[in-house]
Design brief:
By secondary structure, the protein is mainly α. It has 20 helices and no strands.
Length: about 375
């Protein structure tokens, strides 16, 4: 009888109810909210579902992220090994290759002025950097946090790993991906505040056709130029352009399909669950996390503002030929930011079609965020 009682007692005390803190329950609730937003509201479900589920798992069973040294058998938790791929910058680089294989760079090639709007939308990164320094973060931590302003999750993870800020990687990644998912909510009010209704109604001329040769040369030239100037951007810009070269060269269809489909989705699963699993209550519920979330929002808002304001300037210079709304797409949430530009423009004039025009700054923003990350790595000698 005592054996049965002891066995039942052991089983009961092995349940999670006896091992979780109030913080774990709070994070479980947050995970459920994220799942609701992803499934019910459709906010970037490919990202939020794995992130939220990883958050759920680690706060129910923390050992799923345990280091091998912490385990009696010397084997780490399942998601610990997924997370190592984030720290080693493997998954963010593969994400960039998939994005390149899925994205048409023709709007950027047809309208090179988009590079300027993509660059202007990086304003939020540099503003957030100095704000983070002001709030007490060291230089490397401030740089890693500021990249959230580019609305680019993979680049945020990549830079945090390169700068040795793995302790902040979870909050940084969750903030970056959350703001990417909330682009349709955060950006429109800022866009409307920065532009007049007359400006939002501006119809842009159809983009010129882009030749196949231009599409093939573009990723090669960009790789050579950007990586010669900032070699530290090679893992991101190089993989982005390699994926696009797969797409445009026309002789590696199998590689294009793999990079843009099967491989991309495998990487999203691994990256999403491991990022979510980095948000245990002990690691996430800190004052620094709140600062990171606020700084990320400020960076994202200022980036949207910077893109719109340069769009307004271009509108003036070209005598009304550029709709300033496309400048907001310079944050690198591809292609959601471009869709938001289209949506806000269509609200002002249902016959207005800005999507392809907005894709130019959108793609430029991806390159711009990678360049910003490379600049920080060069500054800190990484």
């Amino acid at each position: 009888m005592s054996y049965v009682t002891e066995t039942l007692s052991n089983l009961i005390h092995q349940t999670a109810f006896f091992n979780l803190t109030w913080g774990n329950y709070l994070m479980i609730a947050v995970a459920c909210v994220f799942l609701y937003l992803a499934i019910k509201k459709g906010y970037e479900p490919l990202l939020l579902v794995p992130i939220a589920f990883g958050m759920l798992l680690v706060n129910i069973y923390p050992q799923i992220m345990a280091n091998p040294e912490e385990m009696s058998n010397g084997v780490g938790g399942l998601l610990h090994y997924f997370y190592l791929l984030d720290e080693w910058s493997i998954l963010p680089s593969l994400i960039f290759m998939g994005v390149g294989a899925m994205t048409d760079f023709a709007p950027l090639i047809a309208n090179p002025i988009s590079f300027l709007m993509g660059a202007a939308a990086q304003l939020g990164i540099y503003v957030a950097y100095f704000l983070a320094i002001f709030l007490g973060f060291n230089g490397k931590a401030a740089a890693a946090i500021s990249i959230i302003g580019g609305a680019d999750g993979p680049t945020s993870i990549f830079l945090a790993g390169k700068l040795g800020q793995t302790a902040l990687m979870g909050p940084i990644a969750v903030a970056a991906y959350s703001y990417m998912s909330l682009v349709p909510i955060i950006q429109p009010p800022i866009m409307k505040l920065c532009t007049t209704e007359k400006e939002r109604k501006i119809k842009m001329d159809q983009l010129r056709p882009v030749s196949k040769l231009e599409k093939i040369l573009f990723p090669i030239v960009i790789t050579i130029v950007v990586c010669l100037i900032l070699p530290t951007t090679a893992p991101l810009v190089g993989m982005l352009m390699l994926g696009n070269l797969f797409r445009e060269c026309g002789v590696v269809k199998q590689l294009t399909e793999t990079a843009s489909n099967a491989l991309m989705y495998i990487v999203v699963i691994l990256l999403g669950t491991s990022v979510g699993a980095s948000t245990s209550a002990e690691a996430f519920l800190k004052v620094s996390t709140l600062k990171i979330v606020v700084l990320g929002l400020v960076a994202f808002a200022v980036g949207t503002f910077g893109g719109c304001m340069l769009g307004k300037l271009m509108c003036k210079i070209t005598h009304g030929k550029i709709n300033p709304l496309i400048g907001s797409a310079g944050v690198s949430a591809v292609p959601m930011a471009a869709r938001v530009s289209q949506k806000v423009g269509a609200e002002a004039d249902p016959t207005n079609f800005l999507l392809m025009h907005a894709m130019g700054p959108n793609v430029a923003g991806v390159i711009g965020t990678a360049v910003a990350a490379g600049t920080f790595m060069a500054i800190f000698g990484v």
